[in-house]
Amino acid sequence: MNNNEAREQLAVTMEKFIGLACKRLPDDVLERLKECRENETSEIQKAIYDTYFDNLKKAEELNRPCCQDTGLLHFYIDCGSEFPYMGIVEEALRKATAKATFSSPLRQNTVDYFYERNTNNNTGERMPWIHWDIIPGNSDLKICTYFAGGGCCLPGCAKVFKPSDGYAAIVKYVFDAVTDLGLNACPPLVVGVGLGHNMENAAVLSKKAYLREIGTHHPHPKGAKLEKDLMEALNSVGIGAQGLRGKQAAMAVHVESSARHTATIAVGVNVACYAHRRGVITFDKDLNYTLESYKGVTL
């Protein structure tokens, strides 16, 4: 297969995958939402969850996005160093995004900063957003597709503290960010926390954190305990689904970390709404694909 053929095949497959991922939540998110509903005792809360599930069912039946805000497309890529078509991936993703805007359809959300006009196909300057990690000695292409809606982006924040502020400052910062701003992001939320040395790497790590599969944990025992403690603290406030008082403000809290500078501790926070549209697809070197987020589904 030459590069032109590979570009077209990848674009066609990703256009279909974007259409799937904007209409159907990944299996782990659906299961967690069911658990959240079971944990609630309030009839109002149960009714909200029933509305969520009814909405998701109608999205599948009517072949429409499960939320009107289909966000901006973000692609987090793990690309093997031996994947043969690395050079055509970004062009294929831009083409897939533009075509999926009309075939899915997606709301036209992308606005040029300085011309102040809509690009009309969800592509533009550095958009869709594409983040690369290169995996040595691997020949696969793994793409995590995420729809970054406005309500979920608004609570995002990052800050750098002095080590003398201590880790208690990090916990307070995360708690305040979610309780002050997360109310309007359609809880229950997936909360991503990044711990690093500056705003940039803390923010990136927080994004990677909430893109993890629900039910996974930080590999370090202290990191896993921090996830558990933050989850319990956030759910003790009584925010509930849609902020209408219930037991679940967060359906998951994930922490990702890096080594830090001796003089800094940095924290980043990103949140995802109940309609956590995160889809993972993996291609082999021949562009055969596996849908990792959806069991028993084909494009």
Characterise the protein shown here.
The protein is an alpha+beta fold. The protein has two domains: 3-23 and 66-149 and 277-291, 2-Layer Sandwich (Dihydrodipicolinate Reductase, domain 2), CATH 3.30.360; 151-272, 60s Ribosomal Protein L30, Chain: A. 38% of the residues lie in helices and 21% in strands. It is built from eight helices and nine strands. It has helices spanning 3-21, 27-39, 43-62, 89-103, 150-153, 167-181, 199-210, 221-235, and strands at residues 72-80, 129-135, 141-148, 157-161, 189-196, 250-257, 265-272, 278-283, 289-291. Strands 2-1-3-8-9 form a five-stranded mixed sheet. A four-stranded mixed sheet has the order 4-7-5-6. Strand 1 (72-80), helix 4 and strand 2 (129-135) form a beta-alpha-beta unit. Helix 1 (3-21) packs across helix 4 and helix 2 (27-39) runs antiparallel to helix 3. The longest helix has 20 residues, at 43-62. The radius of gyration is 19 Å and the shape is globular. The two termini are 21 Å apart. The mean pLDDT is 96.
